[in-house]
């Protein structure tokens, strides 16, 4: 199965750690997603289904696109962004000024450190993997082979890290630009789902 992972575009809180906050896309953010999708439609890319995080920075665009392309739309709450606890909606610069050591540790060793009252990387990984287990089953049931998944930077970074079989402490160095598309293959071996990278887009 093929997954095209689209990160949402710029939002009203793009200068902060948004996590589970439900901020809106800016006009620029919508256009970032639209131009990426248009490029792929122009190159004859076709999807069987659109799957989205329920947060509106993903959901609203996914809903409009599903209507335009006349495709089914599924929402999956498990592919939301990592929850940043006390850091939700706070600018990284502010966190750097108030808790520089904790922020530095989180950036360098996300497997060991997390935001105060936030989700650990292990909890985040388990949640996201459960979400993609569900997606795999749904795609199998409907004989869907290619899905567009509208999601968040943390989810894309995690899956890319897993696809490249890199240490999860490398997570934050993975690519996930606003409004860009990242292609992965999804397979299942011994009831375990696995991700691998497709050729670069």
TrEMBL record:
SMART domains in UniProt: PGAM
CDD domains, sorted: HP_PGM_like
This protein's name: Histidine phosphatase family protein
Domain of life: Bacteria
Pfam family, one: His_Phos_1
